[in-house]
Design brief:
Layout: H1 2-54, H2 56-60, H3 64-72, H4 78-89, E1 93-98, E2 103-106, H5 120-127, E3 132-137, E4 143-153, E5 156-165, H6 168-175, E6 180-184, E7 190-193, H7 203-208, H8 215-224, E8 233-235, E9 238-246, E10 253-259, H9 261-289, H10 293-374, H11 378-406, E11 414-417, H12 418-428, H13 430-436, E12 439-443, E13 450-453, H14 455-472, E14 480-487, E15 490-497, H15 525-535, E16 539-544, E17 550-557, H16 561-566
Parallel strand pairs: 12-14
Antiparallel strand pairs: 1-2, 1-5, 3-4, 4-5, 6-7, 6-10, 8-9, 9-10, 11-13, 14-15, 15-17, 16-17
Helix pairs in contact: 1-9, 10-11, 12-14, 14-15
Length: about 575
């Protein structure tokens, strides 16, 4: 019986191994064929969309109404005419530019008046007699794809018609079907991708940013999974199959990535049945060999008692862990408040200088008012008192900023105007900015940008970013800060300085990491700020600017009608 049991185990191992190899090759080839079929379908969709939009500029460039509007300068009906076309065409947007590159008609009325004089789609259209296609990277991320053609009247150029092709809709459609898809231009740069951080990079750069599993994790996974295969690449730590294809348009190519999950599931289903069958046979063999049922029952009882004791021990450990987590949350909140108070202490020295000036002026005005009263000139004395009242208001505003900044954040979130929070933070940092003579340039949208959050905590993040930017420009002769607030799918606030830049990007948001001199910083500001932004549903990122310096970018979910309804 023992020999038969050994032979049964050997037969089971050989059968499972052979079955695994055969089924893995078969299902992998089937999965690859389906991936190639999807790739051909995707490339055909892109090509069809591009070709269907390519003829539109040629037709619109001959529209008598648009030509007449460019000649007469009356564009009151032009935007409505373009809007009537956009649904039939299926394009993202249509725009009519005059000969100076100014948008005079558009399906998106918010873009009226934009200047495109130096834009590639405008310049190339003026130089060419045919329709031109251009790809341009957006500042907020992603690319725009446009067809443009010049509009002529009596052999003279009067404007340019531009059609924006909506290829982003394919990214959204692919994201729900395929694990990952990327479209590359002729230069090898990714211009469409289901992974947003891939755009603008080469395929090698994009895959390098996907951290693979460690060797130990892969070994454990391979031990537990009979269908482990050599992967083509790693996507979010998971092995994937890569299939490349060509799009017959300007040398574009496409790559799709498919996980081996479906292959593993199918193979493991068959292997599970085989292993179950051999397990039943082994169980019968063990039952035949078993002669000590009573001893087994005693052993099971002892193991059951040990499990009960282990369960009680685990419950105690769980309760202790929950207590530790509550203490840790309280400590994190205290640490955030301590960071604010540390910043408050640093600002108080500069604020005291700001208060000394109005105090000295008040003393002068009081002496003058006393002298005027003695000379029986009360009207002029009242003027001095009014000036003293203005100085007191100014001092009160300074102290109110400090008092509001020192308060703890609120428990529940509320709508926050990012422009107002920025103005309050700049007001708190005004003494340091004046002392360093920092030149500040702000780019703010006309409409309010609101998010759902805690204003005190958002101002804490902004103050930390401004302090770091000021410290980064200490060695610069002419320090400059550029603050940009933009709204789209998210509210994005960027703080750019002209300092020395970021040296160690990986450790930047780690606690207690700092490049400042001992005593100047604790290394907790960015770590706390990153945690605050993450708690509010956003993210805090950093990068080095093209012209030097560092760029910190805070992104928070925009507050729109959908967000209001959800709240």
């Amino acid at each position: 019986m023992r020999v038969a049991l050994v032979l049964l185990v050997v037969l089971a191992v050989v059968t499972v191994w052979v079955t695994n190899m055969m089924l893995t090759d078969r299902f992998t080839e089937s999965t690859r064929n389906r991936a190639e079929l999807r790739l051909a379908l995707y490339s055909g969709n892109i090509l069809s969309e591009l070709r269907s939009n390519a003829i539109v500029p040629q037709l619109l460039a001959r529209d008598p109404a648009l030509i007449g509007a460019l000649n007469s300068g009356d564009f009151s009906q032009s935007s409505q005419r373009l809007i009537s076309y956009v649904d039939e065409i299926g394009a993202a947007s249509l725009m009519l530019l005059d000969r100076d590159g100014r948008t005079v008609a558009a399906t998106d009325r918010n873009r009226l008046g934009e200047q495109h004089r130096n834009a590639p789609h405008f310049v190339e259209a003026l130089r060419s007699n045919t329709t031109v296609f251009t790809t341009q990277e957006r500042e907020a991320g992603g690319y725009t794809f446009t067809y443009s053609r010049r509009v002529e009247s009596q052999n003279s150029v009067v404007g340019v018609i531009m059609v924006e092709v909506d290829l982003a809709k394919f990214e959204r459609a692919w994201a729900g079907i395929t694990d990952a898809v990327a479209v590359l231009n002729s230069e090898g740069t990714i211009i469409l991708a289901t992974e947003p951080r891939w755009r603008g990079r080469t395929m090698d750069e994009a895959l390098v940013r996907q951290s693979p599993e460690s060797a130990i994790e892969r070994a454990i996974k391979a031990t537990a999974d009979w269908t482990a295969l050599p992967p083509d690449a790693y996507l979010q730590g998971e092995a994937v199959m890569r299939v490349d294809g060509r799009i017959p348009f300007r040398g574009w190519t496409m790559a799709t990535f498919t996980t081996y999950a479906s292959v593993r599931e199918k193979v493991n289903a068959v292997l599970a049945l085989e292993i179950m069958g051999f397990a039943l046979l082994a169980a019968l063999a063990f039952y035949a060999l078993s002669r000590r049922t009573a001893l087994r029952m005693a052993l099971f009882q002892r193991e059951s008692a040990e499990l009960r004791r282990l369960n009680a021990r685990l419950q105690r450990e769980i309760s202790e862990r929950e207590k530790v987590q509550k203490d840790l949350a309280s400590a994190e909140q205290t640490l955030e408040q301590s960071s604010k108070l540390a910043a408050l202490g640093e600002m108080s020295a500069a604020v005291s200088h700001e208060l000394n000036q109005p105090l000295a002026a008040m003393k002068t005005y009081l002496a003058g008012a006393r002298l005027l009263l003695r000379r029986n000139r009360p009207d002029e004395a009242m003027t001095a008192f009014h000036r003293i009242d203005d100085l007191i208001e100014r001092m009160g505003a300074i102290t109110r900023q400090l008092k509001s900044y020192a308060r703890k954040g609120q428990e529940q979130l509320s709508p926050v105007d990012m422009a107002e929070a920025l103005a309050s933070s700049l007001s708190m940092m005004e003494p340091q900015l004046k002392a360093r003579r920092v030149r500040i340039s702000k780019i703010l949208p006309d409409e309010p940008v609101r998010v759902m959050g805690d204003r005190m905590r958002i101002e804490q993040v902004l103050v930390n970013l401004l302090r770091n930017a000021i410290d980064a420009t200490k060695s610069v002769a002419q320090p400059e800060l550029e603050i940009i607030l933009a709204s789209g799918e998210t509210a994005t606030l960027s703080v750019r300085d002209n300092g020395h830049g970021i040296e160690d990007m990986d450790a930047l948001f780690e606690p207690f990491y700092t490049t400042k001199q001992p005593g100047d910083g604790t290394g907790l500001g960015l770590a706390i700020s990153s945690g605050i932004v993450a708690d509010l549903g956003g993210r805090l990122t950093a990068r080095n600017g093209v012209d030097g310096g560092a760029v910190f970018e805070m992104q928070l979910p925009i507050l729109n009608e959908t967000t209001r309804a959800a709240e």
